[in-house]
Design goal:
Keywords: Cell outer membrane, Membrane, Receptor, Signal, TonB box, Transmembrane, Transmembrane beta strand, Transport. Its main location: membrane. This is TonB-dependent receptor. It is a multi-pass membrane protein. With 954 residues, this protein is mainly β. Among the domains are: 180 residues, no CATH class; 76 residues, no CATH class. The protein has a 22-stranded antiparallel barrel. The chain has a 5-stranded mixed sheet with strand order 3-6-7-4-5. Strands 28-32-36-35 form a 4-stranded mixed sheet, with helices on one face. A hairpin with a 2-residue loop joins strand 4 and strand 5. The radius of gyration is 31 Å and the shape is globular. The N terminus is likely disordered.
Length: 954
């Protein structure tokens, strides 16, 4: 069935061919085939299961086609999606400490687990947190990406609160295409290379496509960029770690002095040549001179390689029934690196160095008093390295067809979808604390070598290697390292399998056309586990202890959808259509839920489309939320009971005293700025089997204007609003302290444990359904192609998103906290993001220029300065105050990045491309609350990235 094309559709078809990034602002999505149909056959639009001849929808959809993707110079789906204006903050390759090589998308800054990711309209495997790792989807197989910027739980079920990302893979491809890409930063690092090849063949009964790709992305070291080579830029060595690479004694000498050097009686200061302790008899004083800059050892951009094989096929069994199948294998190898472990004994544990250790300077054989020693040593001889090997498997098999009945047209499909991701992790550089304890125990010289003994003069402990943590930098021997170091082997799995059946078609004639419907069922099972190394689970390593996580749930769903065209081709209503949908879901773990949707689209005139939607949504708690085993976490926080806390007032002081915090208490951290820093005791993360689903309401209202008097111009403006109730939230340390001591909420006080001296030694950080979130804003999109000139063809595209409200009510009784324009750690709440592209083509030559804009942000200043005191001089408004006291702020300026690509079509059906991203090497704004590197990982890595790409087609 065909329909006469309109000027709007002609403009859309051109924009798709030109790779217009703002195309989705018009609300257009295309059928899940490799090419837009030359006649407007029935197509399925992301956000609806009803196939229609009309590609215009009531919902805003952004379309990134292959032409646009190829102009970005990017080699991963994640990086492409993280640049769109509607995206907020999500994990990516710039997350080193806390990252695992995965990359995600978080529409509207609502978290990646509230954005549903589909591949060819079907769910993809998720992590234990409920998010999808986009690095498991190779960019080489992508035909286009459709981003629905509206809630869609009534159509797709759980997780579609912020929106839906539908990645459409290549199909109906014929011929052969090969591509090679190479690029690096101007500093000569961060090399990236990729190769892929796609081959397709067809006959009169079907088509097969096979694609093979490999991507290699190298690291960038934090020490190779000015902004990240110090823990806090501008403060230099004052923020270096007290855990230095020289062995250090933390308890005082006999008269209270700090021991700096002890040598055997009668020996010179340089030691006795031939003695096993020669060159290893130094300890260093507690002095800033012996701190350590751990930042230079970290990755700024983490390395990874991805290898994938993808196959997709269709076979027409009859003229109306087809068999479809696709399969994929993707392997990701990734790595993170941190400075050597800051090992200690007696600072936050009981691993003191024995007074009978041969390496203890207080050993009685050297005239000492035989005291046990509190010590520390950063193991710079071996950095901490975290490696992942992630293997993702996907298979889909199904039947689909079409038929006519009673002069009505129907489509149907049934299929089985299987996805599994197996991950094996290696943690290198942690210490086996059982061996450390043995190595710092009693030891002495036997037959010219130092050995472990069970007691002075006692039996030798076989296999034990005495460990000298008081060695100077680099002095820990390889034999010692081999004995105390430990490599953990962890395993993870995420698994999803589902059976689906759908049918859509026409019911009866209305004044505006045929009423359409879609209905279907889905039965799905989700499962996964995290199985840490036995030593990690037992708590015998220097790293964070972690208990196993394992769980599963299943669900059955049924949905129905109607498209009701009331009017068409009448004055004031060239089109008036309503849509209704509802989905019932029955979960094995928390029960059932019903979510519905209402939408409309109205064309008062041919040039103008008005559209709007109201929809309910939900998000089921993921496996980690429900079943997570207890896990250690070393949290950075500021204790509001500390005397040097900047916001401390009379209410806080009274509640702290009532809670047993002694007067004069000062928070102790292993590093930090004033009261703020990282705890020296691990806090506890855990799951909540009683967690329930989140619920949401989404609303959109907007228009698409394509004036008939200006060819090839499309403008769209959409208002959007999302409200989430019972939002799952894991309270931070700051949240717990605030609720306990500012508001006197005893339930939150029960989550923390203090010692008699006031020091917090544990907090229980457990998710629960207690938050309310409301987000609101506007999306503006425009695309225009100028008439062809003697100087070539020009097209202009704008894709922008403005957030007017982002409020979160943390717990019942709280006042909403506005976050628009604020920067929180790893969480920037930009007010405005926009991408603008100018594309010029003349003959075989083309140039694309893109500007990417992020508005400015404001963060709390972590440096406390009172009037009359010297200013630190780093924050833009350091002396700002409120009624409670100092309330400094720091401004992160607006940032604009520029990208350019030159392309040339060769006579032998090849294309060569030269490009640069961040052409002017724009530096990211400094953020003092950033977890690492002094800037947020959503910004570009400092430096200009240049690349070359060649494509050959046959």
């Amino acid at each position: 069935m065909t329909l006469k094309t309109t000027k709007l559709r002609e403009a859309i078809t051109f924009a798709l061919a030109a790779g217009a990034t703002a195309l989705g602002g018009t609300g257009i999505a295309f059928a899940q085939e490799s090419e837009a149909p030359t006649t407007l056959d029935r197509i399925e639009v992301t956000g609806s299961r009803i196939r229609s001849v009309d590609a215009e929808t009531s919902q805003p959809v952004l379309v990134l086609d292959r032409a646009h993707i190829e102009k970005t110079g990017l080699t991963s789906v994640a990086e492409i999606l993280q640049r769109i204006s509607a995206n907020g903050s999500a994990i990516n390759r710039s997350f080193n400490n806390g990252g695992d090589g995965s990359s995600e998308i978080a529409l509207r800054n609502l978290g990646s687990s509230r954005t549903l990711v589909l591949v060819d309209g079907r769910r993809w495997v998720s992590t234990l947190t409920g998010s999808v790792d986009l690095n498991t989807i190779p960019a080489a197989i992508v035909e286009r990406i459709e981003v629905l910027k509206d809630g869609a739980s009534s159509i797709y079920g759980s997780d579609a609160i912020a929106g839906v990302v539908n990645i459409i893979t290549r199909s109906n491809f014929e011929g052969f295409e090969a591509r090679a890409h190479y690029g690096q930063f101007g500093q000569g690092d961060g090399e990236r290379s990729s190769v892929d090849a796609t081959i397709g063949a067809s006959n009169d009964r079907g088509n097969v496509v096979v694609s093979l790709s490999r991507v290699e992305e190298n690291e960038v070291m934090a020490g190779h960029r000015t902004i990240s080579r110090d823990p806090v830029i501008g403060l230099g060595a004052s923020q270096y770690s007290g855990y230095s690479n020289n062995g250090r004694i933390w308890n005082a000498g006999p008269n209270g002095e700090i021991v700096s050097r002890i040598v055997p009686p009668g020996a010179t200061a340089s030691g006795v040549p031939g003695d096993p302790r020669y060159g290893l008899d130094q300890t260093v004083p507690m002095s800033p001179e012996y701190t350590y800059n751990y930042a230079v050892d970290n990755y700024l951009l983490t390395p990874q390689t991805r290898t994938s094989l993808y196959m997709k096929g269709r076979y027409d069994i009859t003229d109306s029934i087809s068999f479809r199948a696709d399969a994929m294998y993707n392997e990701r190898r990734s790595e993170q690196q941190l400075a050597g472990f800051p090992l200690n004994g007696g600072v936050s544990n009981n691993f003191l160095m024995s007074g009978d250790s041969y390496y203890n300077p207080y050993n009685t054989i050297y005239g000492g008093d035989g005291r046990d020693v509190i010590w520390s040593h950063r193991l710079t001889e071996q950095p901490r390295v975290y490696q992942q090997n992630v293997k993702t498997f996907h298979t889909y098999v199904g039947l689909e067809g079409a038929f006519e009945f009673g002069n009505r047209f129907f489509n149907w499909d049934v299929g089985y979808n299987f996805n599994k991701s197996d991950q094996e992790d290696a943690q290198i550089g942690d210490a086996n604390m059982l061996n450390v304890a043995a190595g710092i125990g009693p030891s002495e010289v036997r037959d010219g070598r130092v050995v472990c003994v069970d007691a002075p003069g006692g039996e030798i402990i076989d296999g034990c290697v005495p460990f000298n943590p008081l060695s100077p930098a680099g002095g820990v021997t390889q034999e010692m390292l081999d004995y105390i170091l430990f490599t953990a082997q962890d395993a993870f799995q995420g698994r999803s399998e589902s059976f689906t059946a759908n049918i859509s078609g026409e019911l009866f004639e209305l004044p505006g056309g045929m009423m359409g419907f879609a209905t279907g069922i889905e039965s799905r099972k989700e499962s996964g586990f995290d199985r840490p190394d036995a030593f990690v689970a037992a708590g015998f390593t220097s790293g964070n202890s972690r208990q196993p996580t394992e769980g599963a749930y299943d669900l059955d769903e049924i949905y129905a959808e109607l498209a009701i065209p009331l009017l068409a081709d009448v004055t004031g209503a060239q089109l008036l259509e309503f849509s209704l949908a509802s989905r019932y879901s029955d979960y094995s773990n928390f029960g059932d839920t019903l979510n519905s949707k209402f939408g409309f689209k109205w064309k008062p005139i041919d040039d103008l489309l008005v559209r709007g939607n109201w929809s309910q949504g939900f998000r089921a708690p993921p496996i980690q939320t429900l079943f997570r085993g207890q896990t250690d976490t070393f949290t950075q926080f500021g204790d509001i009971c500390s005397e040097d806390y900047g916001g401390r007032n009379a209410t806080i002081a009274a509640n702290c005293a009532a809670g047993g915090v002694p007067a004069g208490f000062i928070q102790q951290t292993n590093q930090g700025m004033g009261y703020f820093g990282q705890t020296i005791f691990p806090f506890t993360l855990g799951g909540n089997p009683n967690a329930g689903p989140e619920s949401s309401t989404s609303k959109t209202l907007g228009f698409v204007y394509s004036p008939s008097f200006v060819d090839n111009l499309d403008i769209s403006l959409d208002w959007w609003n999302v409200e989430i109730e019972d939002a799952l939230n894991t309270p931070s340390a700051a949240d717990i302290l605030r609720k306990c001591y500012e508001e006197g909420a005893q339930g939150f006080c029960d989550l923390l444990t203090r010692r008699a001296d006031g020091l917090i030694v544990d907090m229980q950080l457990v998710p629960a359904n207690f938050s309310i979130i409301e987000v609101e804003g506007w999306d503006f999109n425009a695309s225009y192609r100028m008439p062809d000139t003697a100087y070539g063809s020009f097209s202009f595209v704008l894709d922008s998103s403005y957030t007017s409200k982002w409020e979160e009510t943390f717990a019942p009784g709280d006042e909403p906290e506005s976050l628009v324009g604020q920067y929180l750690q790893s969480d920037p709440y930009w007010r405005l993001r926009a991408n603008a592209t100018i594309d010029w083509t003349m003959g075989d030559i083309g140039v694309a220029w893109t500007a990417r804009y992020n508005s400015g942000l404001t963060e709390d200043c972590p440096f406390i300065a009172d009037p009359g005191e010297p200013a630190v001089g780093l924050c833009s408004d350091e002396f700002r105050r409120n009624d409670a006291g100092p309330d400094g702020r720091n401004r992160l300026g607006a940032t604009t990045y520029h990208d350019v690509q030159f392309r040339y079509e060769l006579p032998w059906n090849g294309t060569v491309k030269l490009g640069a991203n961040n052409v002017f090497a724009k530096e990211p704004p400094v953020a003092f609350n950033a977890f690492a590197n002094n800037f947020d990982p959503q910004y570009d890595i400092p430096g200009r990235y240049t690349y070359m790409e060649y494509v050959q087609r046959f």
